[in-house]
Design a protein that fits this description.
3 helices, six-stranded mixed β-sheet, six-stranded antiparallel β-sheet, about 50% strand, Jelly Rolls, alpha+beta, RmlC-like_jellyroll, about 160 residues, 14 strands
Length: about 160
């Protein structure tokens, strides 16, 4: 029950709201500076807190900007990507001698990605910095059917994250 108390505390303290892809988030920064992109005029940078529990997943989605992930607390988190290289996994969390884990990872613009918490009955609290800044107009959420046509060998992870 201690984990559930910590999750409830973080949701309240950080003013986290449900995110359409799964988990909880709160925007903490949106730059006043703008930049012209092929998708229009965008804020230069945005940042959020993002909390994901082991009972939930961050569904496969794509944005038009680079996204830097920074680990804060909880269980390590796996960022799953789908690309011409197939399914790849980035381990975000506490560095250790037994795994290739880093407290920071980059997901390049236009990459299909989602995430899962590694430990059962746990959570991961991270921050995500998007540049050019995040805009829900650039957010694309995927369904299994579309992804399975493109990545049939990744059946298991696609079914888990859609």
């Amino acid at each position: 029950m201690e984990v559930q108390n910590r999750i409830a505390f973080l949701v309240e303290k950080l003013n986290l709201l449900p995110h359409p892809e799964g988990g909880f988030y709160s925007e903490t920064y949106r730059s006043e500076a703008n930049i012209e992109t092929s998708a229009g005029n965008k804020n230069l940078t945005t940042a959020i807190y993002f909390l994901l529990t082991s009972e939930n997943v961050s569904k496969f989605h794509r944005i038009k900007s680079d996204e830097l992930w920074f680990f804060h607390e909880g269980s390590n988190l796996t960022v799953h990507t789908l690309s011409e290289l197939g399914h790849k996994q980035l381990s975000l969390g506490y560095p250790s001698s037994t795994a290739i884990t880093s407290p920071q990872h980059l997901v390049k613009a236009h990459t299909i990605f989602g995430s899962t918490v590694d430990e059962p009955d746990s959570f991961a609290l991270v921050s995500c910095v998007v540049s050019p800044g995040f805009d829900f107009a650039d957010f694309e959420l995927f369904e299994a059917k579309a992804l399975l046509q493109q990545f049939p060998e990744s059946f298991e992870i696609i079914n888990k994250l859609t």
